[in-house]
Every structure is written in C-alpha cells, then in structure tokens.
Design brief:
Alpha-Beta Plaits; alpha+beta; 4 helices; single chain; 5 strands; 34% strand; 5-stranded antiparallel β-sheet
C-alpha cells in the first residue's frame, strides 16, 4: 500500500513539474493515453454596482453577451454560462489561453467588469483535451 501511495505521489509530482512549462501533457494508463490541457477557469461574482433600471440592466447584459461572443469567435473563450438562482457567484468562463493574466486582461474589457457589476476570480484548471459539453 505504501508503494502505491508513493508511486501515485511520484506520478503527480512528475506531471506537475513537467506541466509547469507546458499547457499539455499525455500520460498512459494501461493501453489508454490521456492528454490533459491547462485552461483558465474564471468565476464571475457579483460586484458592487447594481442596476436599478431594467433598461440599463438589459443594455449592460447585451454588451456583456456581445463581449463574450467576440471572445468565443476569437477562440479564446470555450465555455460560458450563468449559475442558476443568482447569488454571489453569477457565472463561469473557461478560457483557452496561456495565462491567468491573459484571461483577466481579456475579461477586464467586459462592460460588466469595467462598471463593477461583476468581479473576476481566475485560476488554472486541468481538463481532458478536447472535452466538449453537449
């Protein structure tokens, strides 16, 4: 059992060390090869600014969706969506970019971010390369 724990730790330590400088790595488990890719996962949280006017809220939502569509068309944003029920956590974004800073800069141009209607929280996330949501 100790050997299994040690080998598992060694595998993940090796992968982590190798992956620090790369966004992808492949490892084999039996006859199956897994390719993992590093993405940027971003939470969109409620900001301090609240729209009191329905027309204003609709205008900012339209600009927000236009911004996300632009990033999607550029191939930089691969998943986006709101959380059900509102609350402090409003939605998530997954970027296919090199760094967290790049994702923060891209989303920082969103009118909802610029006006503090939404705030960003981003970090690296490893997922299976090519994973699709259907």
């Amino acid at each position: 059992m100790k050997n299994l724990v040690f080998l598992t730790f060694l595998l993940f330590a090796t992968v982590a060390a190798f992956a620090q400088d790369q966004r992808e790595f492949t490892y084999n488990e039996g006859d199956t090869a897994y390719t993992m890719k590093r993405y940027v996962f971003m939470l969109l949280n409620s900001g301090e600014t609240k729209s009191k006017d329905a027309d204003e809220a609709a205008k900012y939502q339209e600009m927000h969706l236009a911004h996300l569509t632009k990033l999607t068309n550029e191939g930089k944003l691969i998943v986006a969506g709101p959380f059900e029920g509102g609350g402090d956590h409003r939605g998530l974004l997954i970027f296919d970019v090199e760094t967290v800073d790049e994702a923060l800069k891209l989303e920082g141009e969103d009118p909802m971010i610029k006006t503090d209607r939404l705030r960003m929280e981003a970090f690296y996330w490893w997922g299976a390369k090519g994973t699709m949501i259907k």
